Amino acid sequence: MKLPIIDTHCDLLSYLAKVPDARADRTDDIACALPFLKQGNVKMQILAIYTDVYSGSMEMAKLQGQKFKQLLEDFKEDLCLANVEFLQRITEQDRLSVVAAIENAAGLASEKAPIQAAFDNLDALIKETGRIAYISLTHHTENRFGGGNYTEGIGLKADGKKLLDYIDGKKIAIDLSHTSDSLAEGILNHIDKGGLEIPVIASHSNFRGIWEHKRNLSDEFAQEVMMRGGIIGVNFLRAFLDNDEPTRILDHILYAFESGFEDQICFGADFFYTKDFPDKSRHPFYFPIVEDASRYPALLEKLADNLTSGQLQKLAYQNAQSFFLKTWV
């Protein structure tokens, strides 16, 4: 089933920045290599600028911004920058569009940098990449902005509030995919208290109602994303689907439709470079049903027994298309 696909999260840029001799078209290295994206009919791919919490985080984010710009230059026949005009005519497009996002605001300001560095670096990355689709304040661990999804009871910190205030009205979404529950609650409360104009999404998260995991969304926060007009990108990683059941991704998607999130659910596959990952229990990272970005048409075919053609279109591209069109205009 060859519907256009919008995917809200992959880590191609960190692969290009960290791995020697990395190439965006190297299919034996990464599951979101450009040939896989083309085979899967992906028409818009969000490329995360991912960093860990360490002293060189700002330099790594800057390098990934440069890699984004270089990617567009190296593959200019096949790639373009995602924008409103492209999205409006996505079913007619031949090329793949890309847009950058921030995964972990430690890339904007390391722990000891002045908070102004976060603002300056965000502005610089917007200039380098053309647009930032969303920002995750944290990754798995705690940083100066708040608590990551593997922390307990660490919410929104003062610098997190300052960064939220800075992106107010800038057409940049805030991403709940890597927050602790306390941080998610703090983000939502701060937005509401300040009347901030910040869209709320979960770019690559599944549902705790299907698989109990701290990386997955509780129904409460999924409802918050829905009420705020956001989107939820289903994650393809085995650890967040079910350790043993390959078809569990179908259950997560169907759960979204059954639970009232029909206009929120989209794809946020979370493909990244796994060859150097030290925890061997995580291998294989992806079940064969979603092992690389070429698998989208086959996945949609499997879902066709349970979803209407209209629902499949919402999942494949329309929900994300609608979100970004209203956010970017």
TrEMBL record:
Pfam families listed in its UniProt record: Peptidase_M19
Signal peptide from the UniProt entry: none
Protein name (Swiss-Prot/TrEMBL): Zn-dependent dipeptidase, dipeptidase homolog
Originating species: Belliella buryatensis
A GO biological process held by the record: proteolysis
InterPro entries: Metal_Hydrolase, Pept_M19
SUPFAM superfamilies membership: Metallo-dependent hydrolases (SSF51556)
GO function terms (MF aspect): metallodipeptidase activity
